[in-house]
Amino acid sequence: MQSILELRHLKTLHALREAGNLLRAAVLLNVTQSALSHQIKLLEEHHGVSLFERKTTPIRFTPAGERLLQLADLVLPQVANSERDLARLAQGVAGQLRIAVECHTCFDWLMPAMDLFRQRWPEVELDIVSGFQADPVGLLYGHRADIAIVSEMDAGETVSYHPLFRFEIIALIARDHALASRDYLVAKDFASDTLITYPVPDDMLDVVRQVLKPAGIEPAARRTTELTVAMLQLVASKRGIATLPVWAAQNYVNRDYVLAKRITAEGLTGKLYAACLPELSDKAYLNDFVSTIRESSYLKLQSIELL
Asked: How many CB atoms within 10 Å of residue 180?
């Protein structure tokens, strides 16, 4: 029997297992859901077996699907390791990646991605530039950082931008807040309350830049804290309204510690990019680091979309 089995089939089944459904697997592989379905259908028709049970959540693989997943678990890591070895031979031994962030909550997804990357590139020295950075791109120019995690692309900067993901930002209020019955908050709802944020400039706060400033709204008062847990304690005590990415607040919301509200009817979203100097942009380990961030974040975080 002539085999039609290719690496892409193994990658598809692996992504399907990790993502949990066809739509998320297609996003992870950067293909359309219909293309992924067609690929699986051809494989099933060729071998005369189903690979997974339809309409099951989470997805359940048949014995045939499990057998191919065993093959995927054996082959895909070896292929990935070989590709990294070829990159090492072509580009030399990798150096270091010093990461600067302008996002207080980025560590929630950055640390797991760094742990995974270390397994793939143990010779690359990973480090986080100490402290919150108001101008992480400036650290690139000064050669004090190799990657900057930023929320906007600036066409005036001579750096390369690698898109990461888009995420939803929610408002957090006390459970007995006057706005508790509202489906979502709008700009004027912040005018009579205290806005609780991290101590960063307003142009780095999405709720100010995208919602309040365009509406000409100023909160009644401002309060800042470095700690997310302190921010949520203030919210629970009815000291004001905070805004955070869904991933940073979800545990508190799930425990009914605070209430989550969408910001505007359409929802408020932020974006993240990895910036680096152009001479680093084509390095295999840099691109693998970006891919690792995208993949691990998409699989672990709620309410994000890959850019």
From this structure: 11
Fold of the 93-165+271-306 domain: D-Maltodextrin-Binding Protein; domain 2 (3.40.190)
Task: Count CB neighbours of 151 within 10 A.
Answer: 16
Domain 166-269 class in CATH: alpha beta
Looking at the chain, the domain(s) classified CATH 3.40.190.10 span 93-165+271-306, 166-269
| CATH tag, 7-90 | 1.10.10.10
* Cis peptide bond N-terminal to 58, omega within 30: yes
Tens-digit pLDDT string for the chain (307 aa): 567 888 999 999 998 988 888 888 898 888 999 999 989 898 888 888 999 888 877 789 999 999 999 999 999 989 988 888 887 767 666 678 999 988 888 888 999 999 999 998 888 889 988 766 678 888 999 999 999 999 889 888 899 999 999 999 999 999 999 999 999 999 999 999 999 999 988 888 999 999 999 999 999 999 999 889 999 999 999 999 999 999 999 999 999 999 999 999 999 999 999 999 999 898 888 999 999 999 999 998 988 999 9
Instruction: For the beta carbon of residue 98, count every other beta carbon within 10 angstroms.
Output: 18
Q: Could you tell me where the beta strands, DSSP code E, fall in the chain?
A: 52-53, 60-61, 96-101, 125-128, 147-150, 160-173, 184-185, 194-197, 221-224, 241-245, 259-263, 268-276, 304-306
Structure tokens at 193: 């309350």
